[in-house]
Amino acid sequence: MMCTGSVDYDVSFWDFAGMDSNMRSFRTLQPADNHPIRGLHYSSTGDLLLVISGSSQAKVIDRDGFEKNGNC
Question: Which sign does the torsion angle of CA 3, 27, 14, 70 carry?
Fold first, then answer.
């Protein structure tokens, strides 16, 4: 699996092994409201994603797109 972020505020999740001829991501979300995505970083286990956007607050989300609090 791979994730991409862009200036259109989207984080897209890709599964190249399971991709069909449509060549589309299997999940797209906007975790930072109306802020462009500046960087994405996986946790060492691959189950969490740090989203750095144009806002002053970075977010940690899981693979399902749910925001995690400071207890992760």
Answer: positive
Cα(20)–Cα(54) distance, integer angstroms: 33
Residues of the domain holding 59: 2-68
**Residue that is written with structure tokens 């989203």 in the block:** 51
Model-level pTM greater than 0.85? Answer: no
Strand, helix or coil for residue 18: helix
Both structure tokens of 71: 């207890």
Whether pLDDT at 72 is above 70: no
Contact predicate 19/27, CB 8 Å: no
- β pairing state of 37-42 and 27-29: unpaired
Quote the number of domains for the chain: 1
